[in-house]
Write a structure and sequence with these properties.
Dihydrodipicolinate Reductase, domain 2, 6-stranded parallel β-sheet, alpha/beta, 23% strand, 6-stranded mixed β-sheet, globular
């Protein structure tokens, strides 16, 4: 495909939207025009693109008949409103919200694992949650070697899980409390500063939060079948960027911590930081701005047969979200699956 795609980023002023624009600039993505879109409140603002500044236009006024590919970094309800409009006008949409992830007829893609699903898209592709992306890339080689029987995950989610609004709320809470001012809470269910919240959203009838309910279903869809049961607890922690997953894995075949370390170090998207005696362990600060998923504290679990523990850390804005969406776009181009206007 010639380098003449017209691209829109809907939600361009948000944290993930800005990260997508940054990655497109870094990669020299094949595009003729890049159109940042946002709500009317952002009209007249600009976003950086390399050494240039791009004017932000309103999503509501966009003529999608002139757009070949659109990244939707929008709340689920807004994505549902505009995705069909864009598709009807011939635009291929990559959506990063939860709106379409579990729809049977919409591909949910992690390109390193299931890029073949893109061949069957009808104009809309869904990008998984950052948790599903990181877990899928870590678990896939282990499952291929030893057949995973069960996974338990404790997910420590940074403020950026709620986007720029979450980051700004944590920053303000910290400043208020350090200056002996009363703080307010709007984005998070409880005060996050100097606190840990053992849930992330409202609860469903089964006492799970929505992300805890959806994550196993996302992984089952990515792996094309429900290969292993997974239970997850999501916790908000008072850091700004980067998610940390504490993972216990039980396999059908014996796989030692040493073997897992050797296996994972061969994966180009994973980086092993695992020498605790020398203070080498993965931390969110290591992952900021990085394309890899960082893994460490790999150790055998003597409490249960064929079990091991590990820690996963990643930049949820970048590898977990924005980069995966751009990788989907690259796959669509490579497979000639974008209809050009």
């Amino acid at each position: 495909m010639e380098k003449s795609l017209n691209i829109a980023i809907a939600g361009a002023t948000g944290a993930v939207g800005q990260e997508i624009i940054k990655i497109l600039s870094e990669q020299g993505f094949p595009s003729q025009n890049i159109l940042p879109l946002a709500s009317e409140d952002a009209q007249g603002s600009t976003v950086p693109f390399g050494d240039d500044e791009l004017d932000v236009l309103t999503l509501y006024d966009c003529d999608f008949s002139k757009i070949d590919l659109a990244f939707f970094c929008l709340p689920a309800n807004v994505a549902q409103t505009f995705a069909q409009k864009a598709m009807d006008q011939g635009t291929t949409v990559i959506d990063l919200s939860e709106a379409f992830r579990l729809k049977d007829d919409i591909p949910l893609c992690v390109p390193e694992i299931n890029n073949e699903c893109l061949r069957f898209h009808n104009g809309l592709i869904s990008s998984p949650s950052s948790l599903a992306t990181a877990l899928a890339l870590t678990l896939e080689p282990i499952d291929s070697r030893a057949n995973i029987a069960h996974v338990t995950v404790s997910a420590l989610l940074s403020a950026s899980d709620k986007g720029l609004k979450g980051i700004n709320e944590l920053e303000k809470q910290v400043a208020d409390l350090l200056n002996m001012r009363e703080t307010t809470t709007n984005i998070f269910p409880e005060q996050l500063a100097f606190n840990i919240i053992p849930y992330t959203t409202s609860f469903l009838d089964n006492d799970l939060t929505k992300i805890e309910h959806d994550l196993p279903l996302e992984l089952a869809k990515i792996f094309d079948e429900y290969e292993f049961p997974l239970t997850v607890t999501c916790i908000n922690v008072p850091i700004f960027y980067g998610h940390c997953l504490l993972v216990n894995i039980t396999t059908e075949k014996k796989l030692s911590a040493k073997e897992v370390r050797t296996l994972l170090v061969q994966e180009k998207n994973l980086k092993i930081l695992d020498n605790p005696k020398e203070g080498v362990c993965p931390m969110p600060i290591d992952a900021m701005g990085q394309n890899e998923i960082f893994i460490g504290r790999i150790r055998d679990d003597s409490s249960y047969e064929n079990s091991l523990n590990l820690v996963i850390v990643f930049d949820n804005m970048r590898k977990g979200s924005a980069l995966n969406a751009v990788q989907i776009a690259n796959e669509l181009i490579d497979q000639n699956l974008i209809k050009k206007h």
